[in-house]
């Protein structure tokens, strides 16, 4: 039975998706799910662990069913038990579905910021409660630990329909969605396909088999994170004479940036595909879908926000910046989240945490994240300024810059890199280039080559873990 005031998720999804939502709702009702319960769901659950559902659709019908029944779904993807405890506490999860060491739905969750410290009954200051039917998304890698954001079904559906219209999704599309539904952008990318009536497959599978699946299944839209596309580009199937997938018309990157070598390699193998990067943050479903044809992979240009969204660049005092001045991106519209609790009125403008500048003509260029600024040599700068030069050089594959404080309490710039597609880093050449191009205070004191960059459960680079690795 659907709770009053909660939208019928299955009223706008087509065919088997509606049937899967109904089947999951029936199973949850038999399990005794109560209105208002905050239910954590491991998005990596296999079909064998789902109460009911369609293997191709993964946990999406389950999340929709929880919301439809007036409970509050919390999609989760945490890498470690300790991280999971902190996430459960931050989101005030009441119960969790089994999988990856999670507890049973019948048991209360006991997450906290420290091991063995139960969350305890009742609300805690700074945590998200969630109204019936809302979906709570966790940001596990916030600067002060995990934080949560609330999105109403109406906001998520608006985001899905906006994205579907922007990409021209239709009922004859077949989508392979490899991005995690534990992020709001990944969740809405999947919902966009369902809202258009497209055939959708949420089974990620190994990168080595993606192009073959696209070809065999007639995939027309491929959705992944930048890290996923980097892994895809590095697989042997994309080498000279590799198998392409001529039916793919759009590949959609859900995340911050994709390096130019990866973009170039994917263009060789998916020559008919329109490359698009979906930009958003924890505060919004999405800000813009940037077509990156001719784009250099570095700083993003937000030429046109998604329909219904108003975007500006603001100073800390709330006034709009002058052209060329760095400020923080502010967004308003129907794709803005309904939380956190320090903003009681849904729909009010939010600061996304993105740094940006605007030109005389109003064109906005992103310039990194406010919570990732590095302070070195008495100067503040975005790690993007270092990463873009490194990635564009072709001497390395992926690159992430961050600051680390030495024994003298002086912050040093560190650059973690992976091998490029040809398999060999050219660190000496990179060092020469960085010293030629960057101001002295931006030049890394240390460059560390890693097999791969550590990532959070949502696919973002885990800068906290990188600092631990570097020591």
From TrEMBL:
It comes from the Bacteria. Pfam families: AMP-binding, AMP-binding_C. GO terms for biological process: secondary metabolite biosynthetic process. Residues 319-328 have a biased composition (Acidic residues). Residues 102-127, 304-358 are annotated as: Disordered. Signal peptide: none annotated. Residues 157-336 form the AMP-dependent synthetase/ligase domain. The keyword Ribonucleoprotein does not apply. GO terms for molecular function: acid-thiol ligase activity. The keyword Ligase applies. Keywords: Ligase. Residues 385-459 form the AMP-binding enzyme C-terminal domain. This is AMP-binding protein. It comes from Nakamurella alba.
